[in-house]
Amino acid sequence: MPLIALTGGIASGKSTIAARLAEHGAVVVDADRIVRDVQRPGSPVLAQIASEFGRKVIRPDGDLDRAALGAEVFGDPARLARLNAIVHPAVRIESERRFREAFAADPDAVVVYDVPLLAEARRDDPWDLVVVADAPAEQRIRRLVEMRGLDAESARARVAAQIDDDQRRAIADVLVDTSGTLEHTLSQVDALWARIRPA
Fold first, then answer.
1. Which of 111, 79, 89, 84 is nearest to 98 (CA)?
2. Boundary-marking domain end, from 107, 134, 155
């Protein structure tokens, strides 16, 4: 019942790796989806966010205005830390519940936690394996511009706002080089799966 953490910088190809592992049969728990779930309308987390940052971060339909919240915290470490102090504990509780649920359903499951902020928030959790999607910052900036429609300045700011690649590499048990072709990335993931689940 391996519990694997999968992380990587923005536009590093992490989702491609997660999708391939899911094709092989892994249960993928997506941290970003959990964040959205714990911030849904009526949740204690959303109420705390509104209390801390004001009603301006709540849309008229009662949902979180992610762009407005992002503008409140981007580039302000103190405000970002206050947001993280609200969100991270709730995400930890819910992610651990989903891990337990997956292993209860299948004690032999391979559970993969797809988590962008592993190095920042969850590096010391008891992972059986830490997998890092790795591509040079300049290449990830190009992907943000070409595939997600960001302007170059915004793309650079997004990449710069994250911890540097060396810190992420330092916690990796397995580094998947995503700088080449899709086939090259997928072949590395297939090899990883063979290591986790030998035939």
1. 111
2. 107
